[in-house]
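quick one before i forget lol
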Amino acid sequence: MARYTGPKFKLDRREGTNLFLKGKRSISPKHPIEKKGAVPPGQHGQRKLRKRVSDFGLQLREKQKVKRMYGLYERQFRRYFDEAAKEKGNTGEALLKILESRLDNVVYRLGLAPSRAAARQMVNHGHVRVGDKKVDIPSYNTKVGDIITLSMKAQKIPSV
């Protein structure tokens, strides 16, 4: 199974909000949500606006939104959810805590990459070091106090 590499704005339109998959932190006038409103993609997108969504449908859309923002598969997401459910307290907050501590997300949050997909690629290509070890696993779980740096080669990349 391959990671989703298709049109990013199509996912934004499906969810009806900007998922920041292209990396811009503010909505540009070119964004389809600004142009067309929240019309879902596809031939029958207009008709989907009229339907009332059930509670299950709302929960599913929120889950899909989070999965798409972080670039996860269903199985990965399920594993993270099970891990969060074992912790004490609010499961939703625990889940977001786990997702935010992924190495690719930390690199994105540090501003070293313009998007989570770009951060994932930087990690995969071995440009990121945790402590003094090279880590090339995007799902690596970072801990408080970890020192995250870029390799010398990565510091010469113009986008960085």
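fyi DSSP finds nine helices and three strands in the chain.
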